[in-house]
Specification:
Keywords: Allosteric enzyme, Glycogen biosynthesis, Glycosyltransferase, Phosphoprotein, Transferase. With 701 residues, the chain is an alpha/beta fold. The protein is built from 23 helices and 19 strands. The strands form 4 sheets. Strands 3-4-5-2-1-6-7-8-9 form a 9-stranded mixed beta sheet, sandwiched between helices. Strands 14-11-10-15-16-17 form a 6-stranded parallel beta sheet, with helices on both faces. Strands 12-13 form a two-stranded antiparallel ribbon. The protein is elongated, with a radius of gyration of 29 Å.
Length: 701
């Protein structure tokens, strides 16, 4: 099934055609999600990073609604009294009726208002509300599904909040309620059933059934049209959850999803075609110095190299200056995240590097949290040995420096043969003997609780990559989230990503993909797939993604073996690049960060809310969506200079030393950057007209 252009809005250039004017002075926005001030997954990142932009748009009329989790509130939320008199009356009325509702500011960029509802406090109403849900919608929720029980409580409390707010308003309100994911979706269904004056938007970031099906090793995308969705949901005991998600999608005035690939999935599984695709963005912070991110890359790379020196002590038979750091990170979903195909490609890459007598060494990091009981003793010992060697070198250096200083003081050139005495040699020999190792450097940095059944370790055993001296590809499995306080690899995730050379994310199921997006804004090239939202988005807006360090792997129309060969080719060609070619590529990658800035992607959410207002209040608001005629204008062309990839430009590949390559390459960084800036438009107003006032207002200039 081809990825056809099937949505109302699929390119940024299409938004240029909308010329109505928006006036939202009398409208209020409630954005409702289970992950408001409550980090569970990627939706938390979406809402957190988007909050500043939405706060600028709606001002004092923007409220985030989520669950009250005391441990999170202590560190993330400043509880205050509501400033909006209508909202204050609403919360007071609910608290007097047996609820616990809190109001405050979420201490993130933009400082948005948050309304936090204590779901557990009203658990006594669960059976009553379940019965009402059955009577109204014929959806039964089993007692043992705690998540679904929370969704029922949260949904009824949310609609109570919205209904009470509407009742407390002196004049008929214009309320927009934006619901994220199935956990918040029941509130939307009840809003429509109770006919509240609320314009509703529902965003699914990944379909429930899609995630379950992909985890079951089925040919998901090529059989989308053939699934019996009710049976599949029932077989996986998620039928009630599926019903809640599907009901929310059908009841919403506007239904959105995060990518074109997920839109196709939603159309087949949820049986409704999304009205708008709302891609996920990031808050991009530009450095005052143009190439400051290159300096940060060098600093972080040095810290990773220090870890590598300790991890491979006794087997440091490779040149760190010719060592490339690759990584994959995310939830430990072995097949969905593409760890299986990445490992197979690494085995093939190892063969290619060996038969071609390459002096490049690849170290691949797997950052995927799994069940462990402690650090691996051998791994900790490696870092201790490295530190001991450093201390020994410093001691000898100080002794050498003191003798050199004294020799120069008396006006004599030092006798080098006498600068190091027997004691110095003894110290150094003991240090060398301490680095001797009888075993191979460990693949895993921790002791796994389920070592014998772990998918990554079993695959490593099958392909035989055990970090031996003859291997040009080494593997380090770090089954824990990175932390700057770790005694092993004391780096946070952002710092680690900056120090790597390439992010590899060959996912089979990835509705959006924040990991490659984060790589892009930090100027780190990445490999994604045409089954990820990020990959599809980049393919649409970049004429030649690989020239900008965005490699798109075909996992939709190729078999597993073909995709693995393509991934191996990407990795091998990347290994052939010279240092200067990698620098050029990082410059180009970083320039793509504007594409992923919420200042640009936020307009999709703006459009979805305005469309909902026009559908819910047609007598007051007017909105006409026009089909974009082309995607021209918001598209990066192929760079005019010689591409950095040896696969595309053989003559630019070095064959001898890096010093002699690239002297004749046609590359002008400033000229390329200027041309790319032309392809990114400045943020502009998305207009909307209020029929009653006729005023013309906008949000951006």
């Amino acid at each position: 099934m081809p990825l056809a252009r099937s949505l109302s809005v699929t390119s940024l250039s299409g938004l240029e055609e909308w010329d109505e004017e928006f006036d939202l002075e009398d409208a209020v926005l409630f954005e409702i999600a289970w992950e408001v001030a409550n980090k569970v997954g990627g939706i938390y990142t979406v809402i957190q990073t988007k909050a500043r932009l939405t706060s600028e748009e709606w001002g004092e009329n923007y409220f985030l609604v989520g669950p009250y989790v005391e441990s999170n509130v202590r560190t993330q939320v400043e509880l205050i009294e509501p400033t909006n008199p209508v909202l204050k009356r609403t919360i007071d009325k609910m608290n007097a009726s047996g609820c616990k509702v809190y109001f405050g500011r979420w201490l993130i960029e933009g400082s948005p208002y948050v309304i936090l509802i204590d779901v557990a406090f009203t658990a006594w109403s669960l059976d009553t509300w379940k019965s009402e849900l059955w009577d109204l919608c014929d959806i039964g929720v089993p007692w043992f599904d705690r998540e679904a029980n929370d969704a029922v409580l949260f949904g009824f409390l949310t609609v109570w909040l919205l209904g009470e707010y509407a009742a407390q308003c002196d004049e008929p309100p214009h309320i927009v309620a934006h619901f994220h994911e199935w956990l918040a979706g029941l509130g939307l269904v009840l809003c429509r059933q109770r006919q509240l004056p609320v314009a509703t938007v529902f965003t699914t970031h990944a379909t429930l059934l899609g995630r379950y099906l992909c985890a079951g090793n089925v040919d998901f995308y090529n059989k989308l049209a053939d699934f019996n969705v009710e049976k599949e949901a029932g077989d996986r005991q998620i039928y009630h959850r599926y019903c809640l998600e599907r009901a929310a999608a059908h009841c919403a005035h506007v239904f959105t999803t995060v990518s074109q690939i997920t839109a196709i999935e939603a159309e087949h599984l949820l049986k409704r075609k999304p009205d708008i695709v709302t891609p996920n963005g990031l808050n991009v912070k530009k450095f005052s110095a143009v190439h400051e991110f290159q300096n940060l890359h060098a600093q972080s790379k040095n810290r990773i190299q220090e870890f590598v020196r300790g991890h491979f002590y006794g087997h440091m038979d490779f040149n760190l200056d010719k060592c490339l750091f690759l990584f994959i990170a995310g939830r430990y979903e072995f097949s969905n995240k593409g760890a299986d195909i990445f490992l197979e490609a690494l085995a093939r890459l190892n063969y290619l590097l060996r038969v071609n007598h390459s002096d490049v060494t690849v170290i691949a990091f797997f950052i995927m949290p799994a069940r462990t009981n402690n650090f691996n003793v051998e791994t900790l010992k490696g870092q201790a040995v490295r530190k001991q060697l450093w201390d020994t070198a410093q001691t000898v250096k100080e002794r050498f420096g003191k003798k050199l200083y004294e020799s120069l003081l008396v006006g004599q050139l030092p006798d080098v043969s006498k600068m190091l005495d027997k004691e110095d040699f003894t110290i150094m020999k003991r240090a060398i003997f301490a680095t001797q190792r009888q075993c191979q450097p460990p693949v895993c940095t921790h002791n796994m609780l389920e070592d014998s059944s772990d998918p990554i370790l079993n695959c490593v055993r099958r392909i035989g990559l055990f970090n031996s001296s003859s291997d040009r590809v080494k593997i380090i499995f770090h089954p824990e989230f990175l932390s700057s306080t770790s005694p092993l690899l004391p780096m946070d995730y952002e710092e680690f990503v900056r120090g790597c050379h390439l992010g590899v994310f060959p996912s089979y199921y990835e509705p959006w993909g924040y990991t490659p997006a984060e790589c892009t804004v930090m100027g780190i090239p990445s490999i994604s797939t045409n089954l990820s939202g990020f990959g599809c988005f980049m393919e649409e807006h970049i004429a030649d993604p690989s020239a900008y360090g965005i490699y798109i792997l075909d996992r939709r129309f190729r078999g597993v073996d073909e995709s693995c060969n393509q991934l191996t080719s990407f990795l091998f060609q990347f290994c052939k690049q010279s240092r200067r070619q990698r620098i050029i590529q990082r410059n180009r990658t970083e320039r793509l960060s504007d594409l992923l800035d919420w200042r640009y992607l936020g307009r999709y959410y703006i459009s979805a809310r305005h469309m909902a207002l026009a559908k819910a209040f047609p007598d007051t608001f007017m909105y006409e969506l026009q089909e974009p005629t082309s995607a021209s204008g918001f598209r990066y062309p192929r760079p005019a200079s010689v591409p950095p990839s040896p696969a595309l430009s053989r003559h630019s590949s070095p064959h001898h030393s890096e010093a002699e390559d690239n002297d004749d390459e046609r590359y002008d960084e400033d000229l390329e950057a200027e041309k790319d800036r032309v392809n990114i438009r400045q943020p502009y107003t998305l207009p909307f007209k209020n029929k009653s006032s006729g005023s013309l207002e906008g949000f951006y200039t």
